[in-house]
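[audit] Reproducing an earlier prediction to check determinism. Same input, same settings, fresh worker. If the tokens differ from the archived copy the diff job will pick it up downstream; this log only records the rerun itself.
[audit] input (587 residues):
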Amino acid sequence: MHIKSIQLDGFKSYQKHTEIAPFSPQFNAITGYNGSGKSNVLDSICFLLGISKLDNIRAKSMNELISHGGSKAIVQIRFDNRDKKQSPFGMDHLDELVVQRHITALPTGKSCYTGYTLNGHSATTQRMIDFFRGVGLNVNNPHFLIMQGRITTVLNMKPEEILGMVEEAAGTKMYDQKRKEAEKTLFLKEAKLKEIDRIFEGSIDPRMDKLREDRKNMVEVTRLQKLRDNAQRKLGAFEYHQSLELSKREMEHMEVVSNEVQELNQRMEQVVVEIGNKGDEQQNLIALRDNPAMETDLSLENKTKQEASLKLEQEKRGVEEGIVRLKSEIERTIKRIENDEKALGTKQVELENIKNDKGEDIDSHEENKALITKLRGELEGMSRGTVTNDKGEHVSLETYIQETRAQAADLDTKVKTANNRRDRIQANLNRAMDKLASLAAKSGTDQTALAELTKAVEKITQQVQSLGYNADEDVQRREREKEITDRIRDLKRTNDNILNNVCGGRYAMNFVDPPVPWFNYERDVEGLVLHLIRLKPQYKDYAMAVDIALSGSVSFFFFISSQLYLYNTIKATGEKEKVRYRSERVE
């Protein structure tokens, strides 16, 4: 492989496009007057080969390689690759290789952008350096470029130095250097792994053991809490059942007493009626008593009536005493019920005090464990974005908030239920019967409303079925839509990663803050010129000519749908700078 021609455009003293050819495959000498640009030709070759020490080509920065007044410099060399024995690896099928390197000055004037192309395809700097070193062209070798006055030094080199030149020419030194770099990287990685293992053994593993122990304790505390809650629910249900049974027995007793009172009242009314009848008979007897003829008969009859009246009076007093006795018994029953209610309230208070006394240590232990778990859960959640709920499970913040709200609602329901139970126990027994009747009426109303709602639901269900709606198919369509959306997002992310990784991201379009609030990337940006131009297969050999004609703009210019100035963030000279690109309007 040897040089066939060199093309310079804007490089040092060659402001205009200049082609230097032909070159001999064996030995070449460049002659000319002083200042004619002989050394610049040699500098262009070293520049294309990727020299890193710019002092050897008499420059302090890349900007000095661009001709005065220009903003871009291009060096292109054509290599004859017909000798397949000296052909680079993977290039045996090509008879000619075209390598181009260009420099573009940035608007700031402090740095510039450089890039390579190999046969019209972009290539990284490291790839091109390995490409040339594969054929024995290491421009960064101290003895690759022999400057004026150093020929004697080369002639007097030691055998080790000569061996290094031979290894460089043979291409074996590149692999030795890569092996040393790999060994150095491997050594650094092993040290890093040892440091990571030390951190795990000294800090993370003990902390994990502690967290596992805390989790075990928390699970045990949670189990005890569930047992306590279950026992409390059973106790509450038992107390409620006992209260209902007591209320039921008292109501039955009151019903019996009420029936007895009602019977006594009826009997008393009958006695009063009989007493009234006896009074009328007594008046008749008094009237007949004045008749002497019937005095004897009336005396006997009056005696009989008086005895019957006396008997009725005694029976009346007995009934009145029975009524008084039943009223006293009713009062004693009501008083006993009130005493039982007070005793029940006292027992409940005593039971709560006992619960508080017995559960004080457990509650204190639970609070401490909960605090520890909360702190450690927050520590773990910092890396995973989760929190630890009361069950010791790691859930998202939204799920934890929902569970907390559900628990609060459950507690509120329990409090309301307890208050209602207390009100029911302390309510008046007579009003409870009225309430029961009203509840029965309300239950009938609710049953009617429920029947109407059931009919409405059945009607709506029939309408939905008539529409041909299938829930399973709808779920499958939604899942398919989600899979397609995820696939599109993954493909877009993959495409962006490829564009950002190829050639240092020169083909990627990464925008910073939009230039206007209403800017829409997908709507306003048509894309890079490089992405919008397609050459026909019969014209693919003219791709390099098109790039030269466009001055490399296919890699830098893009089309937008309106007059906007967009900014692309690139990396240059170790810092990020904003570069303004020219835009063309596309209707």
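[audit] rerun output stored. Observation attached for the diff report: The first helix runs from residue 38 to 49.
[audit] end
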